[in-house]
Each structure stands twice: as structure tokens, then as C-alpha cells.
Amino acid sequence: MITKPINKNLPGMAATLLALLMAGLTTAVTAATIQEITDAGEARADAAAADQKTVESIADQTDQLTADYSNVIKVVDGLKVYNGLLQRQIDNQEAEKSALAESIDNVALIERQIVPLMTRMIDSLDEFVALDTPFLMDERNARLERLRNMMERSDVTAAEKFRQILEAYSIEADYGRTIEAYKGSVDIDGLAREVDFLRIGRVSLSYQSVGGSHTGAWDQAARDWVQLPAKTYKAAIAQGLRIADKQVAPDLLLTPVPAAEEAGQ
After folding, report:
1. pTM beyond 0.90
2. Distance between CA 25 and CA 44 in Å, rounded?
3. How far apart are CA 171 and CA 103, in angstroms?
4. 194: exposed, middle or buried (C-beta count within 10 Å: 0-12, 13-18, 19+)?
């Protein structure tokens, strides 16, 4: 039987081999751990970057919302001012409506009171014209007739009726401060003759026939026409007619006027 001697270095070699295996294993484990750590770091970095973008987006949205809110606040403040102005206008309109409603309620009462007044005014004007110097009687009586007919019309407002009555009074008042020449007819010696009338306010009303053969004046006291001396008044009345027709410049005139009455008579 042949026997081989046992190698005494075998255990040492095994130990060395084991150590080498352990070292290689450790190195592999270490490399794997570093890679994992690197990958994890990169993942965290990517996540942080994504989170940063999210934060920035939210910040941008917040800034936009803040700007929008500021704009809305400005709009709301402007609307408050505008609404306040509208409310004051509405309050004023309501006050005007109340005043108008009150005026409308009083219209019927006012009209019932003013119609009799206007009727009395027309009657007074009619009486005045009848007692006044008889110049332009056709025109003045026609005006009075129009006023009376107007009072019966329903399509004319009370305000317009009152305006026309006041206008008639104004026309009558103007007669007292104007000079006028106009044509008409006068009964002379039982015959109606065409004459030229000369009116100087309400102070004097005289006439002269065509050719100047007859000159006369209205006697307010006698309520009749009287003949005037041709020597005294013919030339004066003719001159007055030319002045009234604006043919010559105004000048002093000799005209017949009623004598002044003594006080107490």
C-alpha cells in the first residue's frame, strides 16, 4: 500500500481563498451599495426638481390670483362709487316723482280756479276796449272774439289759454306808448268817408280825409267825433301822419287832447 504524505499548507491556502472570496464579496456589495445610493440621490434630485417646479407653478398661480384679487377689489370699489351715485340719482328722481305726483293732483284744482279768472280777465278787457278810445276797433274786437272762442275749446290747454290772454293784455298796453297811422272810415255829415287816422298813444285820436278837406278828432268826454279847425290842425295832423308812416323824422306836433279835469270833479 502506497501512501502520500498530507500537505500541511492546505488549511492556510483555504483560509487565504476564503479571505479572497470575502474581499471580493465585500467589494461587490460595496459597489452595489454605492450605485444604489447614487441612484437614490439622483431620484431625490429629480424629485426635488419636480417639487421645485411645482412650487414655482403654485407661486406663479398665487401671484396671478393675488393680482386678479386686487383688480377685482378695484372693480368692486368702483362699482360701489357708481352704485352710490346711481342711488342718489334714484333718490332725486323719486323726490321729483313725488313732486310731480303732487302737482298732477293739484292740476284739476288749479284749472277749476284759473278758468273763472281767465273769463273775468276777458270780460274786463272787453269792457276796457268798449270804454277806450275807439281805435282799431275791428282788430281789437276780433281779438276778444278769438279769446272767447278759445275758452270753449278742449284741445287748448289752460296754460296756452292764459298765455294768449296775457298776450292780449300786453298788446293793449303797447297801444299806450306807440304812434300809428291807419286807414278807416268816419261818418261825416251823414256820409261814410275814407280817412287816415292818427293815433298818438291813448292821448289823441284824430283823422283827416283824403285831400285834407275834413280834419277831426275823438272827443272822449262826448264819446263822439268832432270837427277841428282846418287852420289850426290840418297841417299838424298831416305832419303827424307822415311821422307815423316814417316818411319824415319825429318832431313836435300840435294835436287835440282832452282837457285836464280839476281834482274832485
Report:
1. no
2. 28
3. 31
4. exposed
Domain ranges of the chain: 114-174, 179-244
Look up residue 197 and give its three cell numbers. Answer: 287816422
pLDDT in tens, the chain (265 residues): 444 454 455 555 666 666 666 666 566 656 667 777 777 777 888 888 888 888 888 888 888 888 888 888 888 888 888 898 889 999 999 898 888 888 777 777 777 888 899 999 999 999 999 999 999 999 999 999 999 999 999 899 888 999 999 999 999 999 999 999 999 999 988 888 999 999 999 999 999 998 889 999 999 989 999 999 988 899 999 999 999 999 988 878 778 776 555 544 5
- Residues 171, 180: contact at Cβ < 8 Å? no
